[in-house]
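BUG-398 | component: ligand-complex export | severity: low

The export step for adenosine-5'-triphosphate jobs runs without errors, but we want the raw record kept on the ticket for reference. Input record follows.
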Amino acid sequence: MSQSEPLLRVENLKTQFFTEEGTVRAVDGVSFEVGEGELVGLVGESGAGKSVAAQSIMRLVEEPGRIVDGTVTYKGRTLVDIERGPDGDLRESEAMLSRREMRTDIRGTEIAIIFQDPMESLNPVFTVGGQVREFIELNRDVSGAEAEEIAIDMLREVGIPEPVKRYDEYPHQFSGGMRQRVLIAMALACEPSLIIADEPTTALDVTVEGQILDLVDDLQEKYDTAFVWVTHDMGVVAEICDSVNVMYLGEVIEQADVDDLFHDTKHPYTRALLRSIPRPDRTVESLDPIGGVMPEAINPPSGCRFHTRCPDAREVCREVHPTHAPPEEGADAAGAGNDGARPADAARAAEADGRQPHLVSCVKYESVGYEHSESLEAEATGAFAGGLAEMRGGERDE
Ligand SMILES: Nc1ncnc2c1ncn2[C@@H]1O[C@H](COP(=O)(O)OP(=O)(O)OP(=O)(O)O)[C@@H](O)[C@H]1O
Ligand code: SF4
Ligand SMILES: [Mg+2]
């Protein structure tokens, strides 16, 4: 991916909400790339910053939110480039597309976004077909009749039975899964190169979710559309993604090719997320929820932001903010469950053959003295201690 210019490059993106309670650091230095036709996951618990990151790429962050740093480039065009002026004020660089260019050249035509709740995106008082047609007319240079034809074709393409008849029906006459298919049809109608899908299947039952994921897989292959797929579900990631960014409290804490992430998991948070996935060989009782809750993004914990919940946390984790880098050779020997591979070499090899290098933000993989640091276990109390014990128990069972 890094050998040629990726389709989308997000670098050090920071978005904050300036509220009465304080500054919410919703997205805090996020970087990732999306290659052409690649399906990239953004995964993490509620509040991790996934939606705000997605909205920031599209410049759809609402007040009191603001992108305060970073760049986003798409096909060599600058969607975001924030710099600081001499007196510290935030400025949009001259290279940045204007609001009008974002509307006319990017949104819908180049990059489409699909939201979690189709009812929010579909107007209940207009027919489904009419809304798809209008969207096509707005974004493509075609007549009304041609737009209608494309709309019906797209409804058929996403598996809506009897599309000519259903064209004239209203959103409430469609099931949740069918409404989500309509949004996918709308997103695809202008043949964008990238679709950002923000938890589009979360509200659906698992069977319908499976059908939609299969559909996306088929369409992705047919149209070679790239996706940023936002989800809290590692099972979904495993099913459709090529590479993954695991987010925690505004930061990407592990970034890898999907096979590397599942078979050579590095970060304790990713491990915990993986243990909480339902699988056919697990009973509900044996699922291992992550102990504690994610802290507020107004006052994130010092050092590693996961240290208040991490079963492996030591004193050094409270003091040192981990760098986001390939794991250092040998530095992960201290209790990281290392399999003896040379991770830095593996990261370089991945980069050389165009795959996502494996990056992790955890001091266990850095030479900062983790192995000699005191355990933070003594701090654990109440529910957190319970969760911690559960996580430890889960690890022993592996
Ligand atoms: N309009 C807003 N005003 C203030 N804070 C906000 C606003 N929108 C989002 N936030 C905060 O930004 C942080 C990231 O929110 P975001 O919606 O991106 O999380 P998420 O990962 O998408 O979670 P979910 O899985 O629940 O959708 C949270 O702390 C959230 O409270
Ligand atoms: S840096 Fe420390 S607290 Fe953070 S994930 Fe690694 S071991 Fe856990
Ligand atoms: Mg969200």
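Assignee comment: Attached the raw record above. Residues 17, 19, 24, 26, 44, 46-52, 62, 65, 232, 297 surround adenosine-5'-triphosphate (ligand 1) (CB under 6 Å).
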